[in-house]
């Protein structure tokens, strides 16, 4: 029997979403050219259930797409339900629950994958002349995109030439031809690092791409774990079960055995092609394409009636915010706490499109430290800005932990009332950073540094362990017993 459960089996994940009313099966005919993208975009923006497109124009019967695999849900308590399901957590999990689970697994022993003979991903195997990516309903997601995107929610599998490091990572791939894809392999990301190792030897990089992967695996592939750390072992630790894998048909890489679709082949050492533009995580599309490496597909294997997951990137909240942002938050919280800094929580507000990270500072510990704002800011910058997660997010906001940083309303209030113009803003023009940030100057983007800042919403009194003023609110302004009385009587007052 193949491995089951929503965290380790994409098909089970989809079935669970349908059962919970957090996915909707669409039997009406939908066109992969823009209509899938438009529906998926509106789903994100209205926090509607994930669309399972079961009847696609021009597609082979049975071939399906799942949009918004980690979109938010509009029903308050289950807002993060689709995200939590990726980890097999209850649908009512909070950001704190999810982050602590992710961090616990970072400190646990990795559980390496195990091979299995029971591999649904091999139900259909295409080799040689039979390889044809056009068989799949590859969507054109935005009208401004430079092409149709096959890989928006799948991960690359590559390994270092000495075989000691296997990397699973998400990076987008655009359809280039019947047997070719094109997409970025940034040198600072692990895909690019391992690709560079093979190129130095003048060799193509053995490669596979997994679509409809176990949800915990795709989330880990979107997580900035350190270099040399195998994401596959992390997924084992995270789920408590080794991922069941199977050898690729045409190279020595291993892929999750129950994946919906697996592409195998090589990344060319020298061949590039124009890729993009594409609507991106920061919410914009810039009208340029760039030369990127070409991926040659030598084999396709897939399940019967395969489901290809789709992220239609753009304005939040989509998977670049709910998955990438959450995974960056976990890695950063672990980093800062492990460095002994008085950090209570880290959250990349989804609304900020993974362009800022809010760090909440433990007020009690801050008061005891006897430090200054400048010293705290520099200590955080030193730990964060040279790290793999910190490279990804340019703006950092510090607030005391009387604020729930996962509530954007509270973060806005703190920024408006606590940050002091002129003295609360610290810039780091020499810090390295992801060059995709929209506001970078051409020089900064070319140098991949600058545009980084820390804004402190800490009040001077908070460095002495006290707050300036009392928060005038339901929680702050009434005795506990009266709060409880009001809560107990809420419906009898006539409220719902
Ligand atoms: C939906 C989604 C799409 C992403 N697309 C890209 C991409 O196109 N290029 C990229 O470098 N990173 C992309 N990322 C972020 C990387 O997956 C992430 O930074 C991860 O840490 C990279 O793996 P690595 O740490 O092993 O290098 C994406 C993440 C998600 C969740
Ligand atoms: Mn990695």
Task: Outline the fold blueprint.
Elements: H1 10-20, E1 23-26, H2 35-46, E2 50-53, E3 64-67, H3 81-85, H4 95-107, E4 114-115, E5 124-127, E6 149-151, E7 154-159, E8 166-170, E9 173-177, E10 180-182, H5 190-200, E11 205-211, H6 215-221, H7 231-239, E12 244-247, E13 254-256, E14 261-275, E15 290-302, E16 307-310, H8 319-322, H9 324-338, E17 343-347, E18 356-361, H10 363-369, H11 373-384, H12 388-392, E19 395-400, H13 408-418, E20 425-427, H14 442-447, E21 453-456, H15 480-488
Parallel strand pairs: 1-2, 3-16, 4-12, 18-19, 19-21
Antiparallel strand pairs: 2-3, 5-15, 6-9, 7-8, 7-11, 9-10, 10-15, 11-14, 12-13, 14-15, 17-18, 20-21
Helix pairs in contact: 4-7, 4-9, 6-7
Flavin mononucleotide is lined by residues 153, 167, 169-172, 184, 186, 189-191, 222-225, 311, 319-320, 323-324, 392.
Can you walk me through this structure?
It is a single chain. This protein is α+β, with helices and mostly antiparallel strands. Strand 7 (154-159) and strand 8 (166-170) form a beta hairpin. It has 15 helices and 21 strands. The protein has helices at 10-20, 35-46, 81-85, 95-107, 190-200, 215-221, 231-239, 319-322, 324-338, 363-369, 373-384, 388-392, 408-418, 442-447, 480-488, and strands at 23-26, 50-53, 64-67, 114-115, 124-127, 149-151, 154-159, 166-170, 173-177, 180-182, 205-211, 244-247, 254-256, 261-275, 290-302, 307-310, 343-347, 356-361, 395-400, 425-427, 453-456. The protein folds into 2 domains: 10-310, Pnp Oxidase, Chain A, CATH 2.30.110; 323-464, 3-Layer(aba) Sandwich (UbiD C-terminal domain-like), CATH 3.40.1670.10. The model has no long low-confidence stretch (mean pLDDT 97). Bound molecules: flavin mononucleotide (FMN) and manganese (II) ion (MN). Manganese (II) ion (MN) is lined by residues 167, 169, 190, 225, 231.
């Amino acid at each position: 029997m193949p491995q089951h459960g929503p965290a380790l089996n994409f098909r089970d994940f989809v079935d669970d979403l349908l059962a919970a009313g957090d996915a909707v099966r669409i039997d009406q005919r939908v066109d992969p050219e823009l209509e899938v993208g438009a529906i998926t975009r509106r789903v994100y923006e209205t926090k509607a259930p994930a669309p399972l497109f079961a009847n696609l124009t021009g597609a082979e019967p049975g071939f399906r797409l799942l949009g918004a695999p980690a979109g938010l849900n509009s029903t308050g308590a289950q807002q993060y339900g689709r995200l939590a399901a990726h980890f097999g957590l209850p649908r009512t999990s909070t950001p704190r629950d999810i982050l602590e689970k992710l961090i616990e697994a970072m400190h646990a022993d990795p559980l390496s994958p195990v091979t299995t003979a029971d591999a649904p991903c091999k139900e259909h195997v295409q080799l040689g002349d039979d390889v044809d990516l056009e068989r799949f309903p590859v969507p054109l997601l935005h009208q401004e995109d430079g092409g149709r995107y096959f890989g928006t929610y799948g991960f690359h599998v590559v390994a270092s030439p000495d075989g000691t490091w296997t990397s699973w990572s998400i990076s987008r791939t655009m359809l280039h031809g019947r047997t070719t894809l094109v997409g970025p392999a940034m040198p600072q990301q692990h895909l690019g690092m391992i690709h560079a190792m093979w190129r130095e030897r003048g060799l193509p990089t053995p490669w596979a791409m997994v679509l409809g992967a176990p949800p915990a695996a795709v989330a880990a592939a979107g997580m900035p774990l350190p270099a040399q750390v195998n994401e596959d072992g992390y997924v084992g630790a995270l789920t408590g079960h080794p991922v069941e894998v199977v050898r690729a048909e045409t190279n020595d890489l291993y892929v999750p055995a129950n994946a919906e679709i697996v592409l195998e082949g090589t990344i060319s050492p020298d061949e590039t092609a124009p890729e993009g533009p594409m609507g991106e995580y920061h919410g914009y599309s810039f009208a340029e394409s760039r030369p990127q490496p070409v991926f040659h597909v030598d084999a396709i294997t897939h399940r019967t009636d395969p489901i290809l997951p789709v992220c239609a990137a753009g304005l939040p909240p989509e998977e670049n915010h709910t998955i990438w942002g959450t995974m960056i938050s976990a890695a950063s919280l672990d980093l800062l706490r492990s460095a002994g800094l008085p950090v209570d929580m880290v959250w990349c507000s989804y609304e900020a499109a993974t362009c800022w990270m809010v760090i909440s500072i433990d007020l009690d510990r801050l008061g005891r430290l006897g430090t200054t704002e400048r010293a705290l800011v520099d200590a955080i910058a030193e730990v964060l800005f040279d790290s793999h997660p910190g490279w990804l997010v340019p703006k950092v906001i510090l607030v005391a932990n009387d604020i729930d940083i996962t509530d954007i309303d509270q973060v806005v209030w703190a920024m408006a009332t606590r940050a002091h113009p002129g003295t609360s803003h610290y810039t780091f023009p020499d810090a390295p950073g992801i060059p995709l940030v929209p506001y970078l100057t051409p020089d900064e983007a070319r140098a991949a540094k600058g545009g980084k800042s820390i804004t402190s919403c800490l009040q001077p009194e908070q460095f002495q362990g006290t707050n300036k003023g009392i928060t005038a609110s339901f929680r702050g302004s009434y005795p506990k017993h009266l709060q409880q009385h009001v809560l107990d009587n809420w419906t009898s007052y006539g409220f719902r």
